[in-house]
Amino acid sequence: MGAVDGFLAWLDASRKPDPETACRQLSPELVIRMLAELNAQSPVQVGTCEEMINTTAELYRATGQDPAVDIAVQEETATAATLFVTYLSSGDCGTAVMERPGTDWIITELSRECAG
Fold this sequence. Notes:
Number of strands: 5
Strand content: 15-25%
Number of helices: 4
């Protein structure tokens, strides 16, 4: 499974939601940053990755946001990848920096959203 497949598997798990799977595919440092960003921007406060995944999945569902993405591989090796991801329904974009320490891809804290 390549990095694109790994990212799409995370996206699917994050939207179902399947918080256990989605959280396992995020580095601990990225989870900390995502929790802080969500809590700073939203009236909904979450304390765990699982709560974050459930909450954001519900928000996406409530707004009817399509999870379709365009992914451009910027670089990829057997154990590391950088993807440029654009969410087609919103135009939101970012760089997903991924590592594969074992058999599964992990999205790391080096990932960044596009400047808005």
